[in-house]
Amino acid sequence: MGTVFSFDVRGGEPDAVRTALEEAVAGLHRADEVFSTYREDSQVSRLARGELTVGECDPEVAEVLELADEAERVSDGWFSPRYRGRLDPTGIVKGWAVERAARLIAAAGPVGVSVNGGGDVQLLGTPGAHRPWRVGVADPLRPGGLAAVVSSAGTEELAVATSGTAERGAHIVDPRTGRSAVTDLVAVTVVAPSLTWADCWATAAFAMGSRAGLAWLESLEGVEALLVTAGDEVRWTGGLAARLG
User: Does residue 171 have a pLDDT over 70?
Assistant: First the structure.
């Protein structure tokens, strides 16, 4: 997927965990093979060209497209599984694939699992007794600095996803124009139980801009967020403070 993945697995029977980890890594590679828009032979590329139907693709393709359609509905079109009229579900695939990998490993019995895909993280369980997972959120305006630290204290499932321009430039598209999103934001970090949705919501909110994006994120149950503008203004949802530490 053009990025780095890392795994932090605590506890569990070593052989079972090792087998699950190998399956999770294979699943991530398979997701790239199936969904990559950069591979001419991927199922998504062939589907976009009309060479395959959804029914002829792996079942995961239908699953992801259904999730993407739901994200488009919930975001009132600010998230889209299309790019300039062409099928492109990559905005949801990474979060979905990372979450799926984390849950596969967790099913093997460890007490805690953290899977990080290019800075987007799915956390399950805990790293130890009375210890929460803690995730640093990079400051988009100060390389090497942190804008916040998110804690998983009090929950068994937490995801952290960031969309912005600091790492990859202006790559987020406004679905309504088909061009790069022009907003006052440089980064949106979303905290939610599921990385599949956190990833989508961060992308959609970035395209909306700080005012509309913050209001929309506030309306989503179980979702908190931190937004940073190009003018170095920091905005956040009302419940975010409970997730910092």
Answer: no
